[in-house]
Amino acid sequence: MRDQLLKIKKEASEDIKKASNAMELDNVRVKYLGKKGSLTAILRGMGSLSSEERPVIGKLANEIRSEIEGLINDALESVKEREKHEKLKSEVIDISMPGRIKERGARHPLTIVLDEIKEIFTGMGFLVVEGPEVELDYYNFEAMNIPKNHPARDVQDTFYINDEVLLRTQTSPMQARYMEKNKPPIRIIVPGRVYRSDTPDASHSPVFTQIEGLVVDDGITMGNLKGTLDIFARKLFGEDTKTKFRPHHFNFTEPSAELDVSCSVCKGVGCSVCKGTGWVEILGCGMVHPKVLEFCNIDHRRYSGFAFGVGLERVAMIKYGINDIRLFYENDIRFLNQF
Amino acid sequence: MLVPLKWLNEYVKIDDIDPQEFADRMTMSGSKVEEVIETGKEIENVVTGRIVKIEKHPNAEKLVVCQMDVGSETIQIITGADNVREGQIVPVALHGSKLPGGVKIKRGKLRGLESNGMLCSAAELGLGEYVPNAAAGIYILPEDTKVGVDIKDVLNLGNAVIDFEITSNRPDCLSMIGMAREASVTFNRPLSIPEIHVKENGQDVNDFIDVEIKAKDLCTRYGVRIVRNVKIEESPDWMKERLKDAGVRPINNIVDITNYVMLEYGQPLHAFDYDKISGKKIIVRRAKDGENLKTLDGKDRKLDNSMLVIADPEKPLVVAGVMGGEDSEVTEKSSNILFETANFNGTSVRLTSKKLGFRTEASSRFEKGIDPNIALDALNRAAELVVELKAGEVVSGVVDNYDNELRPWTVDISPDRINRFLGTDIPKDKMVSILESLKIDVVDKDKDVMKAVIPTFRADIELEEDIAEEIARIYGYNNIESTRIKGEALEGGLNREQKIEGIARDILTGSGLYETITYSIVSPDDFDKINIPKNSALRNTITILNPLGRDLSIMRTTLIPSMLEVIARNYSKKIESAGFFELGRVYWPLDDKISKLPEEKNMLVIGMYGDCDFYDIKGCIELLLQSLGIRKYEFKRESDNATFHPGKTAKLEVKRKNIGIVGEIHPDIIERFDIPKHVYICELDFDEIVSLSELDKHFKPLPKYPSIERDMALLVDRNIMASEIEDIIREKGGNLIESIKLFDVYEGKQIPEGKKSIAYSIIYRSDCRTLKDDEVNKVHDSIIKSVESNLGAQLRL
User: Fold this and answer.
1) Could you tell me which chain A residue has the CA closest to the CA of B489?
2) Between B30, B514, B544, which is nearest A106 by CB?
3) Could you tell me the pTM of the whole model?
């Protein structure tokens, strides 16, 4: 009997090895362990054994039974694993087919750059204020220390509505409007549209955007002007940006300067954006002219300040390497969706 | 302002400095350089050549074949010019040469014969502005010109010229001497202005001319010299070269002298034909209204009482400071000359030149302001040059009417204040030496507050801040340390409106729309194009007096035409489907006499076409309103707006206020803009949206009790609106209704003609108990009964 059991064990394990799917394994189970199975038959015949043999054979038979069961289960497990594998294998899709992209929409590039600039200055405690585009001659020119018939008016060809009213040529009139109503400390930026009578071409637009900045407080220095605009330039164009302040002239600032930054496109080596110089001019600035403070009833002996004006289109053109200002106003979606 | 460095070197030694370095350092000390020019830089391999022989081209009537001696060899060149003769010396562009404008000359065949280069006109050498009739034929050089020499040597090209941008506060820099002063300070080198010596003939100027200034308010100074026995001829080469390099065309010795002195000193001079002045008298007076004068350009000018003229007792001769008269012009026949130096009121000159509609070099200089104290130096310098050029004999003495001499003024300066203002620590001595180098004397040097004595050519310096700038620019802006602003921390940040704008942009771009920015100046024709009624308030606009053209002549009162143009542009580029929005201002004139300014309102326009319909744009608006916390709003049918399709348009109301319109563009308008058939536009009052928006959020506990969902499909007349059904559902369902969702609308097969099927899913929930089926069924049934009886609906099973 013992030999029979060992034979069954051997045969069963061979059968299990041969079985290739769940059904065949089930057949093996029935063949050996089922009601009519060979092992079951042996267990049934135990009665004929002596009382000494019965426990020994019984133990062996049970061991073999559980061994076979174990083998069948293991085999079933690996068959299932294999079948799962095959199923997964058959479910392959073409991952190279295009994804379904929802139309993304986008802010206008000028808004994107303006938002960045707002973030830089609000982070330094500036408020963002806005003012009228249809403006009084007084605020646009006179309060900015550009009296009637001053040659500086020729530089800015102005659209007039009537003798007293014009389309502002700069965001600077908001300096005066704000200082009339607010006392120092003042820290504001003023983004907005401005107008000049320029025929549209690759670098001119009769409508464009400026951002004015104004700081007035006790003890504001030209060093502060440089420090603040250094931070602005580095945050907007990258930490490695260098700045160069060149003397210039504006009627409403004294001393006045223009700010050049190292070209962010070529990193100062020279390219078409910087016309090979490695530098690009981005803004005009200076210390607020004492006459402007006086116009706004701010005591210039007690307070000083600085102001600057950035051309948004110019900054965006430099930042993105755009070569034609008209693209901003044409709104071709193939332009807009690049930002 | 073009400054030839060779010329400048006469006053300050700079010829050892590389022109680019010179330019860079001048820029950093305040004289901004536009360009460093090398004259004739683009010309390469062009030499002088003698025409040895000219023959007709056998195959072309208009061409000739020239044998050219170019020094090293004789070459054949074919030309079409008809002014060439044997023996002439002309510029020859050899094979492989380069000309201005990137032109390259190569050997080639012309009608079968070899041509080894090109004979050049003056225009082709870039001299178009300086040589009369430069483009008319080959440039014929003087007979004694050497053959086979680089043309740049012959024409004195290859000079360094710096183009400076002179700002309006520094008219003194519009002169060689002014720039020499700047260069002397920048490079710390001595300035030497040659002294003027005039050799006079001994006759008395007062015997020749009498000057009377009648309009002293418009003429501060008027000086005159007389030159006799003038010989009008070409100026010497050195003078022509300098004038050309400075961008001025040489004409004849007398005109060239006035231009030369103007460039050197910054003082415009005028030369009269003395014999054309009646009565030996010059009168400086206002013109009479209606008086006429034929100016140098041959045009008759009508003058008026606001203009200043230089006249003789009979007639006006010159529009003062603007342009000379044809009658008293210096010509080849002139034998006696009167030189005028004057200081005219800048504003008057500016207004006069504006009224007459032209500007001259002289008028633009007077406008900017000229130091009256240089007038006499300039006049004497001109007289000196007359003698030097052997152009005539100078009568002794000057007539100089100058009543109120301008004297230097002082400005109080405190080195301490200046340092505090600049954020620097510049020693007092250094400040003083900078100022002295700028010819600004400093007195009271031992006091805390010193006095700066401002030379009269620096009219721009009035205040301590002006002095601070002078010190800062010479000290070097880049030597001022960058520092952070000190002082109290400020709140900063965006205000409510700016934040809401940001959210709106997030929502709209998130909906797949692209933001546009368009011109706010538009055409008055836009109103007709979008069917705006003739009496509409929108046609009341802010109008530009001096527009660039009709298309850009009014401030917009609606954003719709701009949006339609954006759509048209994209559609024309074969973009099949797209959506856009713009947040921009419109400008509504107010009758407000006090502010005089219009109301500038913020509007939002959305436009879409292609793969979309009315409900897409409506959905965009709803999403926007909901995101801004505006939960109660109503779309009402609008069939009377001529811009829109009468059946596919709604106005938007919030709290009974009309805040905008949305719909499909009227078919009439499609053709006028070349836009696709179905375009959806909405225009909303964004200022209203901002004021209505509610950004504060309050947490509502999540529902504790389960909901029950019931569907309902109804067959109704086609013209029943969803809102009518929804009103009944809300009315009957009361606060048990959590949400209503329209999930299907269907017309067509299986639905009778004139009817539609409309299906809702309704979610019932109570926030205080678990609802029972019975209870919900009762409510749901009452809803059905009500829609049946009120709207004639039938429940579909």
Assistant:
1) A125
2) B514
3) 0.85
